[in-house]
Amino acid sequence: MPINIMVGLLALAGALVMYSMGSWGAFRAKTVTKRHVTYLWIGFAFDVVATAMMAISARGLDLEPLSDLMHTVLAFVVMFGMAGAAIIGMQAIKAGNDAMRATLAKYILAPWALWVLMFLWGMASRGPARG
What we know:
By secondary structure, the chain is mainly alpha-helical.
């Protein structure tokens, strides 16, 4: 297995763990803390590394056939959805807005669930082909 695929898969696993810790932690606590936001940012960094490694292995972004294009576009949307949750959480903490922190904690599982869906889709449809 090529090294970029191994690095990409490890980074994806890291993103899954960090996003899960940040999202579920905030949801269970019913508020977003600095720790949760830190987990989300670390997850985003892993996600960027994984995306870069997969793009390198594919010699660019997969845009054909239509299912690959859909996965690529939706994966970017949910990746930036997770970054958006981290940004909103960071702003809420900085502003001391407890209502915004509680609201984000209530809805944070939505972008997380979509990210996990893209993760599973990629593993099921592209994973075997990458090896």
